[in-house]
Amino acid sequence: MLLVDIRTAVRDRITTETILDSRLDRMIATAVREYSRYAPVLCSTVLATVAEQSEYDLAYLNCLQVIECLWWPIGQIFTGLWSGSESVYVLDGPTHYHMPSERVINDINQEAYIKTIQGTWEQRNQTLVVFPEPTTAETTDLEIVYAAEHVLNDDEDGYDTIPDVDLDIIADLSTAAYAQARMTEIALEPDYAEGLQRLTTHFVPGNLRETIKVLRQELIRKYGGSGRAIAR
User: Fold this and answer.
1) Contact 216, 172 (CB under 8 A)
2) Which of 6, 169, 182, 195 is the most exposed place for a label (fewest CB within 10 A)?
């Protein structure tokens, strides 16, 4: 999604003020952060474990939330489970069984065994904590799937991970960011009266608050919930 298209869509909505590109880009960035809370980018990475280190920094990954972390304290036994390789449970070619239930039972037993040797983890803010703590005798990787914010591309002319179909949503959220700023400004303005002339502003923040809710409705309607992820 190109920045120039977002700016045009926002200016179509805000016609009472001419907004500089620099200020408009800041409002768009605010809108994208709000959008990322509902529709983040799905990313993956691999981190090498360090002996006697259970905490790993996630801040440089632009990580909003870790979705899954796969690692093996006893050493790497499966690799590439999130890199397009076939699942360990996929059969090659047609296979016939006299007792299909045996295959199901074997899968259940295998899954139960894997869970006993697989390491566990938890996220604490921008830190990933793994259990048990890796030792010098262990050589393994942390395969991490996480949700991240959408960011400007290298050319800084757009957000490559946001689909064009959501242009109206981003424009509405950018307009909501503008209305939020205007609401704060107007809330500080007193009502004014001189003779027969009266200027009343105290109703405006409430009207803007309702407008902001309307501008965010399409985002919530489409992506409402704890979060969605878009693969890149």
Assistant:
1) yes
2) 195
> What does each of the 232 residues of the chain score in pLDDT, given as a tens digit?
999 999 999 999 999 899 999 999 999 999 999 999 999 999 999 998 888 899 999 988 989 999 999 888 876 665 544 444 444 444 455 566 667 787 788 778 777 776 777 889 999 999 999 998 888 656 688 999 999 999 999 999 999 999 999 999 999 999 999 999 888 777 667 777 766 676 776 677 778 889 999 999 999 999 986 555 555 5
| Whole-number Å distance between alpha carbons of 10 and 209 | 18
Record the tokens describing residue 58, joined without a space. 């996630």
Alpha-carbon dihedral angle through residues 218, 222, 223, 224, given to the nearest 10 degrees = 70
Q: In what order do the strands lie in the sheet with 41-48?
A: 63-70, 141-148, 41-48, 230-231
